[in-house]
Amino acid sequence: MPYKSLSHFINTLESAGELIRIRKHVSPRLEITEIADRMVKHGGPALLFENTGTEFPLLINTFASYKRICMAFEVDSLEEIGDNLTRITKEILSPKDHFLDKIKILPALQKLSSWMPTIIHKKGACQEVIMNTPDLTKLPVLTCWPADGGPFITLPAVHTKDPLSGIRNLGMYRMQVFSPDLTGMHWHLHKGSANHFNKYRELKKRMPVTVTLGGDPAYTYAATAPLPENIDEYLLAGFLRKKKVEFVKCLTNELEIPSDVDFVIEGYVDPLEEFIFEGPFGDHTGFYSLADYFPRFHVTCITHRKNAIYPATIVGIPPMEDGWIGKATEKIFLLPIKMTVAQELENIHMPMEGVFHNIVLTSIRKQYPGQALKVMNSLWGAGQMMFNKILAVMEPNIELTDYKMVARQISESVNPSTDIHFMRGPVDILDHSSNQYAFGSKIGIDATSKLPGEKTGLKNIPEPFCNGEEIQTEYPEIKNINSALLTEGISVVILSILKSRRHHVQDLAITLFQNGWIKNVKFIVFVDSLVDVTRVDDVVWITANNIDPVRDCNLINQENGECYSSLIIDGTRKTKKLDDFERDWPNVIVMDEEIITRIDQNWSAYELGSFLPSPSRRFKSLKINDGALTS
After folding, report:
1. Cα angle at 496 between 493 and 499, to 5 degrees?
2. Which of 311, 336, 355 is the endpoint of a domain?
3. 338 in the same domain as 286
């Protein structure tokens, strides 16, 4: 039975022990973020802040566990969703040789039609209260992180329509609040709403936009889903909730929105109007996305349910709530990717440390030489997979969520000289490491077993060796070394370095090999001196963010004539002085000490259970200064 409202879902969470109500006043400015960050990183429940300084409670951490993401879709496991989609797709698309076979698909078609959205010709629950004067400051909009440009609406479902075809797009784009009736609209270059915007600009017409908040959690997920162009996100929502979405007409523009959401923010974007300087914003990469110019969204009307609840999320250093949403995407979209992009694909996994687009692990059923490379190229050309930076391909016997197994497979089967492939193309606009905005490079790792015709060069591999003590004695700029992975069959050494000259990393790596202090190690990773090299998850997160693969991944030939080269990965921060890097480099996101201390002191009053320490204290050493920029 689908959720009738966000309150219905909240009651379900509370009955299952998956929600805590906080009755003490907590400020939407930084304080809610600090509490939510502690909860999500320690596997805590959803949080309902009942005293926000406004008339509306705030819900956060809603999806931040496997159990709650399953509860949102009313399934026991995410695999059920993929299995249901597979079954229905096969029923509809399988060959039909006889009349009776064709008759048998009618129930599936009827079910599909029952999920199509429909319009009801009356006011919805979302229009029970109409603000006399629309005022966004009456909502508990979060200021999430200290260097944010202001308060941001973080969980909006943004509705637009193609001005020519009338096809709807539903997306999720952060919205900085500048005044009671003005926000930014941070839609990315490559997204559906930006495409609609460009068409309105060509037509020189004002673009209607409506934003909704709350309602059935399936709506929120649908707004994040990487659907192909021209596929209605509300068809996906209908499939997930097993019931069609009922729409009502907006009051001040021609768009339609679900009747049972909590808030409706109607308005428009004028494509001919000057853009507004929006940001910075503590983003899902764990770094600030920097200020830039984006369209202005003018609010013409705000309506809401009686007893409406304001939903929000925060993003930052992983793991965060959005990582759990990514788990649903892995399961729901595996079949469509297999059917349309790579039929040999067996599984796909996006580690949270890869913040969706940076790292993707896949497994395939390999049948011919070069098939892994074919899959890389196919995936990099498919929808939002074009933003992926690091893609590894392996075989079905590898459990993609077992990262040590993955690392061992890469260590055993990859020859860096022949099995590492580079590509240039679009990257996410939040990628701060590329030399050019929204354009950079990618690295593909073929970790499959090699077939005849594929070069391996992996014969009689000697034992890896790293003389860490001698390295640090000889080179004081090397602050720490982690070579412990070598003892687990993982051919990786991690070094933290205090860079002081141009080409420092590459020159030092060559010297280490020439002097024999590192031997027979396939992957050498350099990070900045303040990174804890013993925290491999942190190293992976930081390195994946900080590299442009073509620039920062370089092969070094083994001086002793061994059969493979080593890949040197420069995961350090890039600067103009040392690296000729021209773009601004963002800071790591951490909370102010004043806020951390305040939450520590009031923890017992919030009635949140056992004390949880602030995650920001662990990452504070990585922060260069107090701003969004490192320089």
Report:
1. 130
2. 311
3. no
Give the pLDDT confidence score for residue 631 in this predicted structure.
Answer: 81
Residue 26 near residue 54 (C-beta atoms within 8 A): no
The torsion defined by the Cα of 74, 80, 86 and 90, in degrees rounded to 10, comes to -80
Contacts for 539 with CB less than 8 Å, ≥ 6 apart: 482, 494, 525, 527, 531, 533, 571
E strands, 498-571, are 518-519, 523-528, 553-556, 566-570
Strands (DSSP E) contained in 447-543 are 465-466, 478-482, 492-497, 518-519, 523-528
3-class DSSP assignment, residue 452: coil
> What is the predicted pLDDT for the residue at 337?
87
> What local confidence, expressed as pLDDT, does residue 458 receive?
62
Q: Model confidence over 218-263: pLDDT tens digits?
A: 999 999 998 877 788 998 999 899 999 999 999 999 999 999 999 9
pLDDT category at 333 given cuts 50, 70, 90 is confident
What average pLDDT does the structure give for the chain? Answer: 93
pLDDT greater than 80 at residue 12: yes
Instruction: Please compute Rg for the chain using Cα positions.
Output: 26
Supply the CATH number for residue 482's domain. Answer: 3.40.1670.10
21 and 123: one domain? yes
Q: What is the 3-state secondary structure (H, E, C) of 97-129?
A: CCHHHHHHCHHHHHHHHCCCCEECCCCCHHHCE
| Phi-psi group of 271: left, alpha or beta (phi > 0 → left; psi -120 to 50 → alpha; rest → beta) | alpha
Alpha carbon 322 to its chain's center: 6
160: number of CA atoms within 13 Å, CB side? 28
Tell me which residue range forms the domain holding 337. 321-446
* C-alpha span between 368 and 305 (Å, rounded): 58
Q: Point out the catalytic residue in the list 37, 148, 232, 283.
A: 283
Would you state the structure tokens that stand for residue 204, as one six-digit string? 């020189």
Among residues 207, 243, 221, 240, the alpha carbon closest in space to that of 171 is found at 221
pLDDT digits (tens, 9 = 90+) for 380-401: 998 889 999 999 999 999 999 9
Quote the number of domains for the chain: 3
Residues 338, 220 share a domain: no
83 classed as catalytic: no
Q: Pairing mode, if any, of strands 492-497 and 523-528?
A: parallel
pTM beyond 0.90: yes
- Strands, E, within 163-258: which ranges? 168-171, 175-179, 182-184, 207-213, 246-249, 256-258
Other C-beta atoms lying within 10 Å of the C-beta of residue 580: 11
pLDDT digits (tens, 9 = 90+) for 456-505: 666 667 889 999 999 999 999 999 999 999 999 999 999 999 999 999 99
- Same domain, yes or no: 220 and 366: no
